[in-house]
Please model this.
Amino acid sequence: MSIRVTNLAFAFPKFSLRVKELAFESAKVTAIVGPNGAGKTTFLKCVGAVLPTAKGSLFIDGRDLAALKSRERARLVCYVPQEHDTTFNYSVSDFVLMGRAAYISAFALPSQEDTRAAAEALDFVGLTGYADRAISEISSGERRLVLIARALAQQSDILLMDEPTTFLDPKHETEVLQLVRKLAVEKMKTILVTLHSLEMAVQHSDQMVFMKRGEVVAHGKSADVFQESLLESVYDMKMKIIDWEGRKIVLR
Amino acid sequence: MISTVFAFILSVGPLFSDQDKAIKDNLRRTVTVPARVERILSLQPEITRILLALGASDRLVGIDYFISRDDHLFKILFPGGARLPVVSMPDESVNKELIARLDPDIIFTSPTELQVPDSIQRSLGIPVVALASMGSFDGLLEEIELVGAMTGLEERARELGRYFREKIRSITECTRPLALEDRPRTYLAFWSSLVRTPVFYEPVQAAGGRNVADNLLPSRLGTIGTVISVEQILKWDPDVILIQGSFLPRERQVTVEGVLEDKRLGSVKAIKQRRVHYTLGFWYWWDPAGVLVETLYLAGLFHPEKFGRLDLEKEGNAIYKKFYGKTDVFTDLIKSLDFHEWTK
Amino acid sequence: MSGQNNRRPKGLAVFILILPLFLLLISLSIGSYGISPRGLFKTVFSVVSPASHPDVPAAYRDILLRIRLPRVLLAMAVGAALSVSGASLQALFKNPLVNEYILGISSGAAFGAALSLVFLGRAFPPQVGGFVFGVVAVGAVLLISGKAESHFISLLLTGIIVTAFFSALLSLVEFFASPYVLQALFFWLMGSLSLASWKDLYISLPLIAVGLVILYLLRWRLNVLSMSDEEARSLGVNVRREKMLVIAATTLITAAATAIVGIIGWLGFIVPHLVRMMFGADNRRVVPLSAAMGASIMMIADDIIRGLSSFEIPIGIFTSLVGIPIFLVLLKKTRKVWL
Model:
């Protein structure tokens, strides 16, 4: 499931996003990094059709995303927000079940197959025992996993995850990113993640995209593109990359 | 020293004895009013009509919206009334600044407007009396007496009182001896609704009938009406149903035809015997002449064998002439309300 | 309430769903006329086969069929309508503080009824004007908030503004019109079933039924629509279209209910809360249970009014008196504020 971006543009009152040409390979994890306000979330939302974009700027497997109906689009691509506001206290299983919305018509109820898909998704993230718990009663780390489970239940081949690790403790951070890797490898999903942590990004992704002020500054294989000079120009500060036992550490 | 104090007390004493009196109004308020008034603001149409009948219309400094706009007869009875300032509006708001400018000695309001009297009295310090007949002849007669005393027109007030009592007596001497079973049980559908009824309406009693709702309490202080259910009407099973007909025909929400055709009421005696009629009812309380005519009309309705010979139009005009000094007033009312239909 | 969301006694849910039927039977035997249960049975049989009980007074039949039955059915329909409407709009606005009048229906309907009374007089029952302007008010809200579909807060604010606007218009009508003409508006604004008859039901019942069916079918979808607009869109839902559908259905049933019985507060707010407290937030349960519970509360409130005395108290007072204590008791038991 390849993604091709051509002249994608989106304008806010004080900020505009302009991405000229970008392609993402299937079954790979791409980390999108950059300073605050670079447009990472906006970009993700555009690809996820959460923000409206012009026709001819986004192609999934050759199909124009803007021309697709909501249901078709949702079966292809899924945007996973960072957090969920728990106004209504759904159970975890009911919450994950919502991921099946693209497969259920407006006036219908979830079928057995839908329930099964939701249960499997929950199982994949390791939270089967939590099925009957209320969504506001689990920790925020667990809630992230539930959001991912819902995205899984949606069975779209492309997952767009907006800062899935922010505010998580190191253990949960790693868990989530390992899960992401697992999704790409086992489920052949094409995954885009926005991350703040450069070290996590380079360690857990195949490709990286650097953004600054609404534009893509660099992209390519993580190992290749992760250079000090690039980091300095993107973040406007001196950085040093240290290799330690195959892992990269960034010093500021 | 003591003689100075004495003289002071003697001079001050009369200041309190015949200048003011205390009245208890229909909202259970005690108000101190001047013994004589020259400038009257009447926001109560019933009182305004009484002032006209007493010949005290020159004392009116202001009126309310209802009598100026919706009353059927005011323009005929008091053409000069068009020049009087209208001080209140339908939503119970009053123009306090205008009141201050008009500087009345007393203000009359309707007890149905609970907040108005205290609100005005608090702001302007002018005595406000909430007065109405509350559906009773005695209440009406007391009003006439009170207003007569305050305007110095006691003679005229007594004359009207006598006339009123005479006319009523001419009816009640025939109806009082009636046994209970001979008095038609009557349900009154007033105020544009089948289920709103007055708990006290003396004309019905005086005319030889019985108000089925007379054991109920009014829905709140200051009003005479209550709300019942359609089922209650069936339970009462009245012999006669009277509908408030003082609404102009095109404005009537409840009509005789409508009630006769109402399938829910099919088992009620009044419907079966087609004894469903209009009556004058309240039109923002009473017109003293109107309620006399109404009582005659109802007497003819309930007991045609005793009162059927009455020429209601002639009697009505005579009554209105007695009260207001104008001829053919009742004929005008008959025309506006399609009264001829009532007595078919 | 962990572990209980899905396991709440199914028995209780079934009980609540059947309750309206029981209450229907009980309610038919309550009223100021005082028909004994035996008399009631005879009346029912005489309706089915008139020859079997010729001695049943015509009054009994009239009371049962023309007075009590339409009134109780109306209570059921209105109770269900307002509760489901409130539940759906709470989900749509992602706000448990929302009630079914949030989009301006109540003030639009009140103004429409007043306008009808003043200008059209007796020819038109004020209910028609009430319904029309209830819908107009919502239409105005949707039109004004326009394309700002992703800012549901603007829908709320616009609703508040439109409500205020129609209230002002109503005050204007009240200011100038004769209160005697507006007397008929009196009950209606207080909320009353006292004049319920089959005529009222012929039109309002089908409208309410249509709206309820739509919302019942959409009950799972409401879960999805209760997510943020971003999430809902990402889940593959045509947010704008489906929101319009929900709003249309709720407007239909609320305007139809309000046009007949006036403004009855609290029901659409409390009942969904009660249901969520007891059974969780899943709208597959909340919608049908809100309908059943709303119908039940309405019938109980009306039974109290009819049974207590021969005079009528506005039903809005009773729905609060019945609903609020239940709400508080449950609040204490679960010790939760949000749902």
